[in-house]
Specification:
Elements lengths: L1 E4 L16 E5 L4 E3 L2 E6 L2 E4 L4 E6 L2 H6 L1 E5 L6 E4 L1 E4 L1 E3 L8 E6 L5 E3 L4 E9 L28
Antiparallel strand pairs: 1-5, 2-13, 3-12, 4-11, 6-10, 6-13, 7-8, 7-12, 9-11
Length: about 150
């Protein structure tokens, strides 16, 4: 895979070790996260291997503990804030800026400092099998039972 750093502060995706499934993604500069949905550009572009796609995912630590950030007024006191990374996809042929979608449930904007890990990129193979239009599907024991309905069998 290849990566282009598009700004001086951009950081290439990094795996913590050889067993890590995801590549950590970092802020290229100090960024302000506003209440609601935000797209944080990482100032990197990637070329993924053939037949792969990248999933931009939350890190488990920030999912359970909250996102690391700072008040806009007091930059020296780190807080864990109520904000989540929203799953995104980087297609194999995409060559634009990779970004992270963050939804903040905070009432006030907050700061994420430069070089902060905010998400991870998990690269996976995909199957590009086309759908075939049919009049009916094969039957299974599950049938049409959906969310949570299998627990009560």
């Amino acid at each position: 895979m290849k990566v282009v750093l598009l700004s001086e502060g951009a950081i290439a995706p990094k795996r913590v070790n050889e067993f890590a499934a995801g590549y950590d993604l970092f802020t290229p500069k100090d960024v302000v996260v506003n209440p609601g949905r935000n797209m944080i550009p990482l100032d990197i572009a990637v070329e993924l291997d053939p037949h792969t796609q990248g999933e931009v995912r939350p890190c488990s630590g920030s999912s359970i503990n909250g996102m690391k950030g700072y008040s806009l007024q007091v930059h020296d006191t780190e807080k864990r804030l109520d904000a989540d990374v929203i799953l995104g996809t980087v297609d194999e042929d995409y060559r634009g800026v990779v970004g992270v979608i963050i939804k903040s449930f905070e009432k006030e904007p907050f700061l994420i400092k430069h070089k902060e890990k905010i998400a991870q990129l998990v690269v996976k193979k995909y199957v590009g099998t086309p759908f075939e239009i049919v009049s009916e599907l094969t039957t299974t024991d599950r049938g049409t039972k959906g969310f949570g309905q299998l627990e009560h069998q």
